[in-house]
Structure formats: structure tokens, C-alpha cells
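Need residues for this backbone.
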């Protein structure tokens, strides 16, 4: 009996120890396995010395000191939004650029141009009525200064999603930074890699109760009357901020033209069913205002412009959004950098200054498709446009702000040695015997995380992660990878 009692106690004690052991998820075991795996891979002579790091720190502080406070009123403003460019995206893109473009020994030590700006901060991104933002509620926040309901733009909370009559009530419309700049006599412009009539750019002139309402056909598809709640294309012609906008560059010809019009470049019809051609009407309206207006559809036309003869410019280079940055040349489409360059040349002719809004939309598209390689390439392209904007303007009269509208679920995790390609995987296997990717999405349309036949996790070692279209496997299947709500960075100078 006594023996039995002690046996029970012993079993309970062992059980408790095992349970505690199982609960102990400390990193010491992982760390040991990892350190053994990378043993000898990075000889000391490759690695920076303490002097290097201390000099770097000293230089950072001294440059802040040299810079001092800059007390001047900015005449010009450029606002760059990387769509879906959260903090993790910025960290990973920095390494990608370092490894691919900068000739850095490892990559982690590189910087994006935006990161060299002297001021930085963080921004919350939630919508008025949702925990996680979409690009239209957040556009209303950062362009109009007021949070809005999910998937509505340029409107106050009185208008719920799809509320056509509410949209028709101008008391619910909120003004934008483009309008404020115009009231100050400044020139204004919008550059996007998305469609010119789409959110977020359109939130600068339009109030729409459903972000997809870019043509009368879109409004009608939602069962609403386009006469009551006009689309963002019509509002470009009707609303004062649209009428006064000087430069609008991006894609989206499909939504500017009517079904009767066959696009000469693509042989496909437009989407509008009211017979209206927004591009042509815009040109006529602008000719009446300045007499120096142009409508263009190709990169060669953009680069061939004599900017001293152009005050107003509409460029719509693709039927939908612009293609991925490495496919632009194929389609005679301009880079973000080129669009920003021409926009600034035209807008800066105004002695009162200008405001330019630049939207990098492809980052978001890549993340939604679980393609980390694409997302990082597009951030590097976006960063080149930031650099161009910075180089073409003077710090003494131009405020540049770079931020994002929301983040994505991509994570950036261990363990591998410094300098390992950001697109590859851990050096040690996980508990199931397979290695795991450094970048991972929580959900999305990518291939299944586990093979339904074997029940085993997908072996990423078999994948070609250098292919820009490579899609990461995901644990949670979702039609389109979800936005996420951690804070986004703001860089400013
Ligand atoms: C739309 O707004 C205008 C101007 O406020 C008003 O005259 C018109 O009746 C409204 N239309 C509808 C259908 O509410
Ligand atoms: C651009 O236009 C201006 C004004 O019409 C003209 O003086 C100048 O020669 C033109 N430049 C080029 C390169 O054609
Ligand atoms: C991986 O993809 C890259 C880029 O598409 C391609 O150049 C390379 O040949 C591919 N490698 C293999 C082994 O298929
Ligand atoms: Zn998105």
C-alpha cells in the first residue's frame, strides 16, 4: 500500500516534469542546433569590427547634429504611399536590394533610400468600423484627414458601404489635401501604378460609397443608379478638385472609355455603358482651361513630352493597372520613376509650388498573391521613385513623406546565417523534418501548406524561389492574402 502510494507520487512527479519540459519553449535548444549548423560559415575576417559599428553610430549622431532643425514653410509636398508596405516588407526589401543591387557582402546592412530620411515614426491604420484597413478607408484618413468606413472613400461616417443616396448628399463629402493645395494656388498631381480612377488616388477628388464604383457600369452592377451616385470617373470631370488636377498618370484605360470604343493598343472595348469617354472629355475640359493639355497612352509619348509646352497631363498606359515592373518595357509602359520625373517637371513650373501624390500599388498585388519576390522587387522600384522625387527637389522648400496604408501577413523569421538569400529558407529543419521559408504568409491563395495525400508539409527545398512568380505555400487557404493591422512606418524629410 505504502509502495503503491509512493509509486503514484513518483509517476505524478515524472509526469509533471515531462509536462513542464514540453511547456518549456525556450530558444536555447533551437539556438544550439542552429549555431552547430552554421559553424564556420562566416569567418571572423568577413565580419565588421567593433570600431566599424561605433563609427557608424557616431556618424549617425553627428549627421543629425549637422542637419539641425530646418525651420521653413514647405512650398511643395510629395506624398508617397507604398500600398501594403508594412514594417516587415520594408525590412525584407532592404535585404533584397542589398543582395541583388547593392553588391553588399550580406544584404542586411543595406538601406532603402526612404530609410535615409531624417525623421521616422509609426502610424496606426484601422478603419472607422473595422479592425484592419483596406486602401480606401485609409486613403480617406491620410488624404482627407478623417477616418472612414471600410471600402468607402472621401466620405464621412454618415455614408455606409454601398449607400448611393448617402453619397449623393454633399454634406457627407470630406475635402482632400489636393483640394487644400489647389486653394493655395498650387499645382496638383497624382501618379499611380494602379488605375487612374481607382482608390486611393481618386479619394483626392471623389466621394464614393463603394470603392469599386469607377464607371457607371460598376455602380449599376451593384444595383444602384449611376445618375444618383456617380462613379469616380464622372466625378473627375464634375468635382472641382478633379477639374483642377493638373497631372494624372497610371493605368486604367478600360474604365475611362465606353464599350463602343475599341482600344487601338489592345483591341479591347472600354467598360463604360453611358457612352462617355472620360479621357476625351478631360482633354476638351483642360484645353479650355490652359490650352496646354495632353492625353497620352505610351511611355515613348511620356518621355518625348516637351514639358514647357504641357501644363495638364493625363496618361493612362495600360487597360488595367500597370504590369509588374519587369514587364513594363514589353508594353511600352513607364516606370514609377519616369512618371514621377515628368510629373515633377510639369508641376514645378508653378511658382506657388505643388502637391504630388504617388501610389505604389503593385506591392499590395504581389502580397495578395503570396509572391514575396514580387513584393520586394516592387518595393525597390517604389524606393527608386522616392529617390527621384528627393533628388529633383530641394530640402529647403519641399516636404516628402513616405508611408503605407496598411500591412500584410508576411513574417520574416529565423534561422539562417547572415547573408542567406532573403527568398530562401532556414538552415535547420522544423520538428517535421522539413526546412521552412524565411518569409511566410499566414494565409492566401498560394499552394497548400500540407500535401493532402501524404499529410506532410510542402517541401520548400524543391521550389525555385528565384522565380519572381513563386508563390509561398500557406497554412490558411484564402482567395486573396489578407491585409494586416500592425503599425506602418512613416519616413519624412
Ligand atoms: C441628389 O442630390 C441632389 C442635390 O442635393 C438633389 O437635388 C437630388 O434630389 C438628389 N437625388 C436623390 C435621388 O436623392
Ligand atoms: C520646348 O518648347 C519650348 C516652348 O515652345 C521651345 O522653346 C523649345 O525649343 C522646345 N524644346 C524642344 C527640345 O523642342
Ligand atoms: C528558377 O527561376 C529563374 C527565374 O525565373 C530561372 O532563371 C532559373 O532557370 C530557374 N531555375 C531552375 C532550376 O528552374
Ligand atoms: Zn490590398
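Answer:
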Amino acid at each position: 500500500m505504502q509502495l503503491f502510494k509512493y509509486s503514484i507520487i513518483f509517476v505524478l512527479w515524472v509526469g509533471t516534469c515531462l509536462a513542464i519540459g514540453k511547456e518549456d519553449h525556450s530558444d536555447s535548444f533551437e539556438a544550439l542546433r542552429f549555431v552547430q549548423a552554421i559553424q564556420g560559415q562566416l569567418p571572423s575576417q568577413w565580419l565588421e569590427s567593433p570600431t566599424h559599428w561605433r563609427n557608424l553610430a557616431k556618424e549617425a549622431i553627428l549627421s543629425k547634429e549637422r542637419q539641425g532643425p530646418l525651420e521653413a514653410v514647405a512650398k511643395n509636398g510629395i506624398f508617397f504611399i507604398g500600398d501594403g508596405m508594412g514594417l516587415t516588407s520594408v525590412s525584407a526589401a532592404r535585404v533584397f536590394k542589398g543582395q541583388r543591387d547593392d553588391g553588399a557582402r550580406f544584404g542586411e546592412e543595406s538601406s532603402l533610400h526612404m530609410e535615409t530620411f531624417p525623421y521616422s515614426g509609426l502610424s496606426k491604420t484601422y478603419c472607422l468600423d473595422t479592425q484592419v484597413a483596406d486602401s480606401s478607408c485609409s486613403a480617406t484618413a491620410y488624404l482627407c484627414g478623417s477616418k472612414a468606413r471600410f471600402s468607402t472613400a472621401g466620405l464621412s461616417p454618415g455614408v455606409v458601404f454601398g449607400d448611393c443616396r448617402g453619397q449623393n448628399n454633399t454634406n457627407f463629402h470630406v475635402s482632400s489635401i489636393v483640394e487644400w493645395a489647389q486653394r493655395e494656388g498650387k499645382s496638383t498631381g497624382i501618379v499611380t501604378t494602379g488605375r487612374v480612377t481607382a482608390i486611393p488616388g481618386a479619394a483626392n477628388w471623389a466621394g464614393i460609397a463603394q470603392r469599386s464604383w469607377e464607371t457607371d457600369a460598376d455602380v449599376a452592377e451593384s444595383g444602384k443608379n449611376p445618375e444618383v451616385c456617380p462613379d469616380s470617373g464622372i466625378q473627375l470631370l464634375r468635382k472641382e478638385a478633379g477639374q483642377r488636377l493638373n497631372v494624372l498618370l497610371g493605368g486604367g484605360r478600360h474604365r475611362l472609355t465606353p464599350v463602343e470604343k475599341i482600344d487601338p493598343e489592345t483591341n479591347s472595348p472600354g467598360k463604360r455603358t453611358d457612352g462617355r469617354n472620360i479621357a476625351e472629355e478631360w482633354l476638351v475640359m483642360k484645353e479650355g482651361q490652359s490650352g496646354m493639355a495632353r492625353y497620352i497612352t505610351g511611355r515613348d509619348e511620356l518621355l518625348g513630352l516637351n514639358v514647357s509646352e504641357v501644363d495638364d497631363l493625363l496618361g493612362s498606359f495600360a487597360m488595367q493597372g500597370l504590369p509588374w515592373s519587369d514587364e513594363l518595357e514589353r508594353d511600352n509602359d513607364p516606370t514609377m520613376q519616369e512618371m514621377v520625373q515628368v510629373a515633377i517637371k510639369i508641376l514645378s513650373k508653378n511658382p506657388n509650388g505643388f502637391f504630388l501624390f504617388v501610389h505604389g500599388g503593385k506591392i499590395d498585388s504581389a502580397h495578395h498573391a503570396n509572391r514575396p519576390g514580387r513584393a520586394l522587387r516592387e518595393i525597390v522600384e517604389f524606393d527608386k521613385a522616392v529617390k527621384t522625387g528627393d533628388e529633383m527637389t530641394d530640402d529647403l522648400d519641399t516636404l516628402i513623406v513616405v508611408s503605407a496604408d496598411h500591412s500584410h501577413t508576411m513574417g520574416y523569421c529565423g534561422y539562417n546565417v547572415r547573408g542567406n538569400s532573403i527568398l530562401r529558407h532556414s538552415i535547420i529543419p522544423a520538428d517535421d523534418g522539413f526546412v521552412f521559408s524565411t518569409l511566410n504568409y499566414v494565409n492566401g491563395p498560394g499552394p497548400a501548406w500540407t500535401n493532402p495525400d501524404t499529410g506532410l508539409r510542402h517541401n520548400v527545398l524543391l521550389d525555385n524561389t528565384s522565380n519572381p512568380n513563386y508563390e509561398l505555400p500557406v497554412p490558411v487557404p484564402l482567395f486573396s492574402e489578407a491585409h494586416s493591422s500592425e503599425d506602418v512606418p512613416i519616413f519624412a524629410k
